[in-house]
Amino acid sequence: MNALGRHLLLELFDCDSESINNLEAVKSSLIEAAKRAQATIVDVVFHEFNPFGISGVVVIAESHLSIHTWPEYRYAAVDVFSCGEVLQPEIAVNYLVEQFGAERASVVEMQRGVFVNAAAPVANKAPVAVS
């Protein structure tokens, strides 16, 4: 079975509430996680809510990393969606667990774009023209 991408759904419980409510800390942690996973960063957008909480996305050539934090519950939800063979999403996940001081973490992996009856293997690249 072939898939276009891997989607890691990360739930972080009992985080350090200050670190997940600090816009610069959350933003820099997601950027560093993307870099450590060998991603190519395309764009970065984050928003800080009042009175607390942060949402953000690091758009990467291989897909994205996103986060939503609930500091009042010491909880963060993170997505690491990757296409291709280069990106190492597990490295990003492990880094974020450590950065946010999560005492408990849950990771679910989903295969995205699964084509069970595909006539040809699913490729994550544009086809090459043959002369």
Report on the structure:
The structure is a single chain. The chain contains two helices and six strands. It has 131 residues and is α+β, with helices and mostly antiparallel strands. It has one domain (14-112): S-adenosylmethionine decarboxylase (4-Layer Sandwich), CATH 3.60.90.10. Helix 1 runs antiparallel to helix 2. The longest helix has 14 residues, at 23-36.
Keywords, please?
disordered C terminus, 131 residues, globular, alpha+beta, six-stranded antiparallel β-sheet, single chain, S-adenosylmethionine decarboxylase
Quick synopsis:
By secondary structure, the chain is of the alpha+beta class. Helices cover 19% and strands 41% of the residues. The chain has a single domain (14-112), classed as S-adenosylmethionine decarboxylase (4-Layer Sandwich), CATH 3.60.90.10.
